[in-house]
Write a structure and sequence with these properties.
The chain has about 650 residues and is α/β, with parallel strands linked by helices. About 45% of the residues lie in helices and about 15% in strands.
Length: about 650
């Protein structure tokens, strides 16, 4: 390390150096130097494995670890080594399971299988919604076929047994796959049988073809041994899937030790296979003791205040000498006027970023889109929709077909709308797909003097002196219906806020959110409610934070059926004569008295854990925290400093 270790880092190094120190989880806050710390332990480890999340990180770590006993590799390369060790030499085929599914589906169609019949009925309903079939196009595949590929990926990453029908349906719900089947549907059994066939076929073909998920799944599926090490260091532990965790176990020699580094409050990839309970599962399975790394070297004190409002159960601290910084709001419509080189703009959805980028291109202003294959997604959508300059509304028709018959709260709708609006924004004004490609090429790479745009999901690892959160009212998503989903939404806000070094700006759109107060009452899990206003009024910022020290990360299948208090209890408390006294106690920081008064007022809560009462009070009255203080009002609206 270039600088003397901090007391927190020194404690971690001492634990690693101690032969009886056991296995360790480093609870690392944002900007706390977790990777530097993890690399720093290499001087005390004669031989070990450093598991990196992707190839680029592994390459960078490989350079930093030269001359040490730690070998850096990805989880995928570890699994591939286990497969190659048994004499297999397969080709990498990213479409392997697409091909297996297509061949299997064609065979089922020939026999009139009920899954195919149902899928055709759903496809016909979608076509009918668009005014009937085109005589020049063959019947499209229905939603069952289209979603099976996602289910195959999810089952492998989560190590789900397809024979367990309840587990398969739960998996589809947690991963927001949107299967048009529910428990009790007679086709659930055949669907699980088909999933089993697809996975078995994938195993049978493993000697000749693999996709990337196979690399982490097959060692578990067929019981392969991995190269073993006396130490395994795992970075970004919160993003490990169950398949990744199984590989870690296989790589650990008997009597070996684990150093896992991560932040459960930056777990935002549950939709992509990460285990929301990964940190807690690792701590339990490997008997890890937790050491803190909570001093951030990135964020100014005001930004730290926002972070600690979001995650009060695990506060972080600004480094000694950190500046005050700025937290404020502005109108989103003025964003292009103030963006400068090196600024970072984050958003819950991609289409608002793409529309901002297109506006900058039209004005001849530089811009770079980070962290996502935007070009591939836009071009695929335009091709699927049959877009052309003579058919400019093709994407709208495609979206209507894709969403026909979907439930209004189906999480899959969000991704489809995002794809459609991204494609529409880029294609606007183009005369060919080639022109679309050239426009997209201008958004990639690096450009001098450019601000950077990224979705919050793509923001981890990024930081900037000034960060704009575009459309913060989009988080939490109204489609987040489970406790896990709400925690993931809170984590998205936490990740977005903690990218800022000096200035954090909430760029509020000029619209009201219909039914926002009612939605908060019906779903009392709201994290931060940022209330947009009409143009004539300055933006305001309201904070209502979930979380309590006892909560941690819930089990993946937990539902929000009691931890915030049902609607009738919310109504009773709002109308109760003791309501003002309870609010006064809570806002004064007298939490025990507020809880006592609440239980006295509502007999239904007397037997409930204190943490459940706290969730209710937090939703109603906000966090026990000083909040945002209005400092001044200017042309940009109300300035908000912590």
């Amino acid at each position: 390390m270039q600088h003397p270790p901090t007391p927190e880092q020194a404690a971690i190094f001492d634990a690693v150096r101690d032969p009886h120190g056991g296995s360790i989880f480093v609870d690392a806050g944002p900007g706390a130097g977790k990777t530097t710390t993890a690399v720093g332990v290499a001087q005390y480890i004669p031989r070990g494995l450093f598991l990196a999340f992707n190839k680029a990180i592994a390459a960078t770590l490989g350079q930093r670890l030269q001359g040490t006993g730690l070998e850096a590799r990805t989880v995928h390369s570890l699994g591939f080594a286990a497969i190659r060790a048994v004499g297999a030499h397969p080709e990498i085929d990213g479409r392997k399971y697409d091909k297996i599914l297509r061949r299997t589906w064609d065979s089922l169609r020939a026999t009139g299988h009920p899954l195919v019949v149902r899928d055709d009925e759903l496809a016909d309903a979608q076509t009918e919604a668009l005014g009937g079939a085109s005589p020049t196009k063959k019947r499209p595949q229905g939603p069952l076929y289209q979603l099976l590929g996602a289910l195959v990926d999810a089952a492998r990453l989560d190590l789900v047994d397809p024979a367990d029908e309840a587990a398969v349906l739960d998996l589809a719900a947690r991963r927001e796959i949107g299967l048009p089947l529910e428990a009790g549907d007679p086709l659930v059994g055949p669907l699980c049988q088909l999933l089993r066939v697809l996975l078995l076929t994938g195993k049978e073909q493993a000697g000749t073809a693999l996709d990337y998920t196979d690399m982490v799944w097959l060692p578990w599926a067929v019981g392969l041994a991995c190269p073993q090490y006396p130490w395994v260091v795992a970075d970004e532990a919160q993003d490990l899937s169950r398949a990744h965790q199984d590989l870690l176990r296989r790589a650990l020699a008997p009597g070996g030790r684990v150093l896992a580094v991560g932040d459960r409050y930056q777990s935002i990839y549950a939709f992509a296979g990460a285990d929301p309970a990964a940190v807690d599962r690792l701590i339990a399975d490997f008997d890890l003791r937790t050491l803190p790394l909570h001093t951030t070297f990135r964020c100014a004190r005001s930004v730290v205040g926002v972070a600690n409002a979001l995650v009060s159960e695990r506060p972080i601290a600004a480094r000694a000498g950190a500046g005050e910084g700025v937290v404020r709001t502005m109108h989103a419509e003025n964003l292009n006027e103030v963006l400068a080189a090196g600024d970072l703009v984050l958003c819950r959805v991609n289409y608002l970023l793409v529309e901002l980028a297109m506006e900058r291109l039209v004005q001849g202003l530089p811009v770079v889109f980070k962290g996502r294959d935007l070009a591939g997604g836009v071009l695929a959508t335009l091709r699927e929709a049959g877009w052309s300059p003579s058919n400019p509304h093709a994407v709208t028709a495609w979206l209507e077909a894709q969403t026909a018959g979907m439930d209004e709260d189906d999480p899959a709708q969000e991704g489809l709308y995002d794809r459609a609006r991204c494609a529409t924004a880029v294609a606007r004004g183009c005369n060919s797909l080639g022109e679309v490609e050239r426009k997209l090429a201008r958004l990639s790479g690096s450009e001098e003097g450019a601000p950077y745009l990224a979705s919050i999901h793509a923001a981890k690892g990024l930081e900037a002196d000034r960060v704009f959160v575009l459309g913060p009212e989009l988080v939490p998503s109204p489609r987040a219906a489970t406790k896990v989903a709400w925690v993931q939404e809170r984590n998205l806000q936490y990740v977005a806020a903690t990218r800022a070094k000096e200035e954090l700006v909430f760029a509020l759109r000029n619209l009201e959110v219909p039914g926002e107060e009612q939605r908060r009452r019906e779903r009392p899990w709201s994290v931060v409610t940022l209330t947009p206003t009409v143009k004539s009024a300055p933006p305001t910022l309201q904070v209502a934070v979930i979380g309590a020290p006892e909560i941690g990360v819930p089990e993946p299948d937990a539902e929000p059926d009691g931890a915030g208090g049902p609607v009738d209890e919310v109504e009773q408390l709002l109308d109760h004569p003791e309501g003002p006294a309870i609010e006064a106690a809570w806002r004064a920081g007298d939490v025990p008295n507020a809880v006592r008064l609440t239980r006295a007022a509502l007999p239904s809560l007397r037997g409930q854990p204190e943490v459940d009462v706290r969730w209710l009070l937090r939703d109603l009255f906000g966090p026990v925290w000083s909040g945002f203080q209005r400092v001044d009002a200017g042309d940009e609206g109300v300035r908000e400093d912590v």
